[in-house]
């Protein structure tokens, strides 16, 4: 803690985000890039994008509803368990590069992280 105060690097995790989905059902054997990459740039290329656009991005509340229904998880799983897991990964990433960050008065860095959940609900960066 003292080291971060001295060098001016102090991460502030923001526990907000969204869950992105593909226009198509996931298929490991598919060669279609839209199945594997859920960013909007790729999804816009899919012929069903206009029709399914609203279904390709969920807030954490909608993700929680889906996970509660499909996996019988507690109503606070996303807010507590998932968020804690993501923050632990972000903290590890930050700590691994902290020594390379330069403190400059009046500047800040905004880091974005993309996570995936596997079938067992493990968090992957």
- Note the gap between the termini: 25 Å
Question: What can be said about the biggest beta sheet?
Answer: 2 strands, antiparallel
Structural class: mainly alpha
**Approximately what portion of the residues adopt beta-strand conformation?**
5-15%
Q: Give, in spatial order, the strands making up the sheet with the most strands.
A: 1-2
Helix content: 40-55%
Note poorly predicted spans: none
**How many runs of DSSP E, i.e. beta strands?**
4
What is the CA-based Rg, rounded? 18 Å
The coarse silhouette is globular
N-to-C series of helices and strands: HEHHHEHHEE
What is the number of helical segments per DSSP (H or I, 4+ residues)? 6
- Mean pLDDT over the residues: 84
Molecular structure report:
It is a single chain. With 125 residues, the chain is mainly α. The protein is 41% helix and 6% strand. The protein is built from six helices and four strands; from the N terminus they run H-E-H-H-H-E-H-H-E-E. It has helices at residues 2-7, 33-36, 40-43, 49-52, 60-71, 77-97; strands at residues 19-20, 57-58, 116-117, 123-124. The protein has a two-stranded antiparallel sheet. A two-stranded antiparallel sheet has the order 3-4. The model has no long low-confidence stretch (mean pLDDT 84).
């Amino acid at each position: 803690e003292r080291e971060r105060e001295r060098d001016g690097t102090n991460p502030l995790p923001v526990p907000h985000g969204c869950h992105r989905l593909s226009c198509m059902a996931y298929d490991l054997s598919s060669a279609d890039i839209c199945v594997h990459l859920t960013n909007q740039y790729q999804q816009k290329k899919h012929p069903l994008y206009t029709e399914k656009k609203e279904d390709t991005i969920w807030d954490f509340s909608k993700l929680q509803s889906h996970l509660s229904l499909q996996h019988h998880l507690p109503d606070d799983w996303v807010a507590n368990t998932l968020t804690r897991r993501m923050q632990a990964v972000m903290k590890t990433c930050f700590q691994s590069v902290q020594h390379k960050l330069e403190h400059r008065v009046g500047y800040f860095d905004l880091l974005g992280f993309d996570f995936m959940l596997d079938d067992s609900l493990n968090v992957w960066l």
